[in-house]
From TrEMBL:
Signal peptide (residue range): none
Recorded family membership: Belongs to the ABC-2 integral membrane protein family.
Record's bilayer topology term: Multi-pass membrane protein
Protein name: Transport permease protein
UniProt key word ATP-binding: no
Alphabetized GO MF terms: ABC-type transporter activity
Keywords: Cell membrane, Membrane, Transmembrane, Transmembrane helix, Transport
Subcellular locations according to the entry: Cell membrane; Membrane
């Protein structure tokens, strides 16, 4: 009986994930503007700030490799947020309520758009990495380092998509759900965004960067881009990702339960 339930859960999850992916493909405006903005920032940061990599604190690191994680993470915030937007549409047109009447797992209904948002981000990240390669990116850890960056991106996308879906289920409003995703944008800039931690002068900004989970994601990605295989930044990065995923997926599951109770 348990095996049957597990099989049904995985089938349901695949079906809802496929539907969400088809929705994204049919509406390219969900992800194309976000991809363009992320690439625009990459070009601007690399073109306008690359000179500061000559400072001793950079230790000769390529500024493109230093700033690239910022472009990837910003793509995550805009891209994975589309999972919540798609769910809001289902809530507004009544489709989500009809799904709740089916015997499908409630968690599967929620995981569908979350996984689709995560996969969307993965494709965006691959495109960004390819363009960065043509701009001169060299990965110190080699191809294995690229795989690590993609795994970190998948984890971040899963965490943020879970948050986006949870907000959508709580608010049931497109504008509120979109505003909820914007809360994460300050996290990008309250971190080691443009310079290493050692070059941050404001005390309050150093404190913000220290408690900011984005800092550890940046450091993990930069370690494979610039330093090669350095275990500690990677361990911290994956631990932060695991914690965020646990929090946001739980948040989205509880939000789905409340949505069930109110419908």
């Amino acid at each position: 009986m348990n095996e049957q339930k597990k099989g049904s859960f995985f089938v349901d999850t695949m079906v809802y994930t496929k539907r969400s992916i088809v929705t994204i493909i049919r509406n390219p405006l969900i992800f194309i503007p976000n991809l363009i903005i992320s690439l625009f920032f990459l070009f601007v940061y690399e073109g306008g700030l690359s000179g500061i990599s000559q400072l001793p604190a950079f230790e000769g690191a390529n500024y493109l490799a230093f700033i690239l994680p910022v472009s990837i993470v910003s793509a995550a915030i805009g891209g994975a947020g589309g999972a919540g937007q798609a769910l809001v549409k289902d809530l507004e047109n009544g489709y989500f309520s009809r799904l709740l009447l089916t015997p499908s797992s409630r968690l599967a209904i929620v995981l569908g758009p979350i996984i689709a948002g995560m996969l969307q981000l993965l494709i965006q990240t691959i495109l960004i990495l390819v363009i960065a390669y043509f701009l001169g990116l060299e990965v110190a850890a080699g191809f294995g380092g690229v795989i690590v960056v993609l795994l970190l991106t998948l984890g971040w996308g899963l965490a943020f998509a879970g948050y986006s879906v949870g907000v959508a289920l709580r608010t049931k409003n497109a504008q509120s759900a979109q505003a909820g995703t914007f809360v994460f944008f300050p996290l990008i800039f309250l971190s080691t965004t443009f310079v290493p931690y050692e070059l941050i002068e404001a005390g309050w900004l150093k404190i913000a960067a220290t408690i900011n989970p984005t800092t550890y994601l940046f450091e993990a990605m930069r370690s494979v881009f610039i330093d090669g295989w350095d275990a500690w930044p990677l361990v911290r990065g994956f631990l932060v990702i695991a914690l965020l995923c646990a929090i946001t997926i739980t948040f989205s599951a509880e939000s789905a339960q409340k949505a069930v109770s109110s419908d």
